[in-house]
């Protein structure tokens, strides 16, 4: 049986990022926190933390963190059920952590899961990351599920197909005109002479578009970075550059021009989540899958 106080100390260090902050949150001395984690490492016979300027978990530490979060959810579900039997008290609010790409959050994830969250008094802590990297947060134990492009289930997880997000290449009319040949066709060289608007440095949609439709691998072109959905969309509308946007966005911004009509980049999305889920996490998984069937293209 694992010691609850030792697990609590490990979790606090990983959640707060340092021994000092963990000790303060637990109202313990720094030495007490260190001793508890050292004892846990001795029981398990392996290191759980990589000490440094920023403390991080080893693979074994990540597995334990995920275990603790599962236990917390199960306990919250149990307490919520017990409280729900009493007419005097409403069920507790419970928090769930997920990792989702910004486009999904705005276009289908939140609209799809909102009714379930309100009905079951669930709170979301959303970690925003590129869809190619969200699974890192699940692997580290920081979240209980993620919207990801990773089709292969990670260890201890299930990867369920959600559907396809289709992206189109667009620009403001004035900028789009500068990318055309006299005959009206898009010139790749003229396109690359214009800046692109990119969500962040992990965003590879523009490169995927250039490879798929022009055969250009790792071309050099000027770039704006706007890591917020509203800022990203506004930058394109202002003519600062061309960019890749979900096709749902086009219906809301009729003033933008598609640079290569009919050409798209399709991104297949998956919901990666733990095999063993608490009831609250199971409700979230079902809501995510239902939302995806309503809002995403189905393969």
| Quaternary state of the chains | single chain
| CATH topology (fold) name of the largest domain | D-Maltodextrin-Binding Protein, domain 2
C-alpha termini separation = 45 Å
Number of domains: 2
The CATH architecture of the largest domain can be given as 3-Layer(aba) Sandwich
CATH class of the largest domain: Alpha Beta
Helical residue percent band: 40-55%
List keywords for this structure.
46% helix; seven-stranded mixed beta sheet; two-stranded antiparallel sheet; alpha/beta; elongated; 2 domains; D-Maltodextrin-Binding Protein, domain 2; Arc Repressor Mutant, subunit A; 299 residues
How is this structure best described in words?
By secondary structure, the chain is α/β, with parallel strands linked by helices. The protein has two domains: 1-92, Arc Repressor Mutant, subunit A (Orthogonal Bundle), CATH 1.10.10; 93-299, D-Maltodextrin-Binding Protein, domain 2, CATH 3.40.190.290. It is built from twelve helices and eleven strands. It has helices at residues 4-16, 19-26, 30-44, 59-84, 102-119, 135-139, 173-178, 188-193, 205-214, 229-237, 247-252, 279-295; strands at residues 49-50, 56-57, 94-100, 122-128, 145-148, 157-171, 196-198, 223-225, 243-246, 257-258, 265-274. α1 packs across α2 and α2 packs across α3 (30-44). The longest helix has 26 residues, at 59-84.
């Amino acid at each position: 049986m694992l010691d609850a106080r030792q697990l609590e100390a490990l979790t606090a260090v990983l959640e707060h990022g340092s021994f000092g902050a963990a000790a303060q949150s637990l109202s313990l001395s720094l030495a007490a926190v260190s001793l508890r984690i050292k004892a846990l490492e001795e029981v398990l016979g392996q290191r759980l933390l990589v000490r440094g300027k920023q403390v991080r978990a080893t693979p074994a530490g990540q597995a334990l963190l995920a275990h603790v979060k599962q236990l917390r959810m199960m306990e919250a579900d149990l307490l919520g059920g017990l409280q729900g039997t009493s007419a005097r008290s409403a069920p507790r609010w419970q928090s769930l952590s997920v990792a989702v790409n910004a486009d999904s959050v705005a276009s289908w994830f939140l609209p799809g899961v909102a009714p379930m969250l309100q009905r079951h008094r669930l709170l979301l802590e959303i970690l925003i990351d590129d869809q190619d990297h969200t699974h890192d947060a699940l692997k580290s134990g920081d979240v209980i599920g993620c919207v990801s492009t990773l089709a292969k289930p990670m260890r201890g997880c299930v990867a369920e197909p959600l559907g396809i997000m289709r992206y189109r290449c667009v620009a403001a009319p004035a900028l789009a005109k500068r990318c055309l040949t006299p005959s009206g066709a898009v010139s790749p060289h003229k396109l690359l002479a214009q800046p692109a608007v990119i969500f962040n440095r992990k965003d590879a949609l523009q490169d995927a578009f250039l490879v798929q439709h022009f055969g250009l691998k790792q071309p050099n072109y000027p770039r704006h970075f706007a890591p917020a959905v509203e800022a990203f969309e506004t930058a394109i509308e202002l003519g600062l550059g061309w960019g890749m946007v979900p096709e749902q966005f086009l219906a809301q911004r009729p003033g933008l021009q598609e640079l290569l009509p009919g050409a798209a980049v399709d991104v297949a999305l998956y919901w990666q989540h733990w095999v063993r889920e608490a009831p609250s996490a199971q409700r979230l998984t079902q809501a995510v899958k239902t939302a995806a069937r309503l809002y995403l293209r189905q393969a």
